[in-house]
Design goal:
Strand content: 15-25%
Radius of gyration: 32 Å
Distance between the termini: 68 Å
Largest sheet: 9 strands, mixed
Shape: globular
Structural class: alpha+beta
Number of strands: 21
Amino acid sequence: MGRKAKKPFENPNPLFLKWLEEWRDEARAKDSKLKHAYAKAASSMCKYPMPLQCGRDAMILEGIGESIAQKLDAALNKHYAELGIDPLAHVTHPDNTSMARSSSLLSVPSPSDYGSRPTAKRAKQKKQPPKSGKKEYVPGYRTGAYALILTLFTDSQHPKSCGYMNRAELQQQAQGLCDTSFTIPEPGTRYTAWSSMSTLIKKGYVIKSSSPAKYSITDEGCALALRLQTVGPPDVGSPGRPSVAPFCVTAPHGSPIARASSMAVRHTPAVNHASIVDDDDDDDSMDITHTQTSTATGMIDDPGPCLIEHVQLFAPSLPSQSISGTGVNFTPTFTLKPGTFDIVLCVDFIETTGGASKRKDTLVPELQSNGVEHSVRKLQVGDFLWVARERTRPLPGQLSLPVRRELVLDYICERKRMDDLNQSIIDGRFKEQKFRLRNCGLRHPIYLVEDFGSAQNLSLPESTLQQAIVNTQVIDGFFVKRTQDLRESVAYLTIMTRFLQSFYKDKTLLAFPREHLDFMASYDLSSSQVPLMTFEEFSERTVKNKAMTVSEMFGKQLMQVSGMSADKAVAILNKYPTPKSLMDAYDMQPTDSHRESMLACLKYGKTQRNLGPSISRLVRMLYCTRGSLY
């Protein structure tokens, strides 16, 4: 016969539970310590399987004392008064079926539910469909689930998105949308905002895969995120509520985002935030009751293409900052105002240790003698870069300084001695390093070339090395600085540090994720506000041996083709992001001559020159030849 399915547990004290959750939410909004007491009382009430007649009876539960019991009795008496029911008569006449019938419609625990009503009638009443309609899970405003689902959705619609986010970057970008911490538990509990991720995965809004974990949003999650953004935050513009910054994004018609937008708009009910009640203390979710969609809410059953394609996203955290020249408003994660930060030179630890000679041992002493504030650390790309480090002061009662936030300035330097340059060209690291420097997110890469001995003793001709240096400056667009020795290189780094300290001292630095900075590629550096990324995000995104997408691996393959530059590879990837798409395009060509010239007219680089027939033939030979190339 099999096992019988367990019936869902129905709380016998819905009013008491509802009031406790309301008081908990009010305490949370006021940041009162009572929120923990009410949360504990609500948790006990939620688990208790027997009906309670009054608040004093609830004192048998853990977390409910005399004060909460008196408050429950007062709320119960007020509820009976609104219904025109005498509380004493309600208790002393348990067989009053008319009162039980009227109260059951409002989820009132009637006296007959306290054990005097027959079991058959109670079972029949449970089978009646609820009057309020079907309930649906929607995360609470500025809770962990709210921040996570919106952050994943915003990342998924970015054109350069890899389709997933890891835990660190997801927590960092979602923190601005959440009132609680993703890493630090609340006092007395193990709960963090990250605990809501398990609920999102269980309900099918997020998919977790791989190890280390990668989190991707589903179509249902996109619909939920769009529904949250369409409804917007409660009480917008009221005192005590943060303002919202509009972030307008256009989704192509027929794309997954547009389909999710259509689904969200068609099925989004008219929501009254005053009626939203948290139903789960662990994930701060909400129950929203479906009601009939009204034209007054601005939502219609059949939205037009404009409504589907133009989606307005709300990013409620800090006050929005408009970057001049971008045309888009984003909300910074945090802000460093003038006079609250120091410009520090970061030195890769490889530049201070290792090597058979002691030439690297003099780098740090030279910087110290020049009075340059520096920090030796591991850099994933480049040898030197500059950060704006927040100034902090010790607080009373703290043993250590607070954690100082750091923003990476838009300048990064790669140092090469002539012998290092010779070897990197031979083993292929020269092209790879330039490619990583150009795609690290910093807009002003610098190549510092240091002379060392005679070039005649090197394996490559001096003309080849000089040509590589010129190509780095003219073709790749790097700023190239030539120095005679290490002392002159340190002098250049010192002057560069002094310049950046003078340049940024009167500017306001705004922290943004890498995705937002890609939209700000044309911002004006002469403005008083400069958008930058944090050092933590820079380090995570520039790890050399991280898991790569198919497009990234395809780009690495293309870079091995003779004569292929980074701009040419990017031009091919923009049109054919995967090897399969490229080979499918070759299969659609009628003849071999058409295949050989298929890529010749692709435009690349700033000058928008053609890729040319030579590269087109090489790529065709590599991906269309079956068997060995020799």
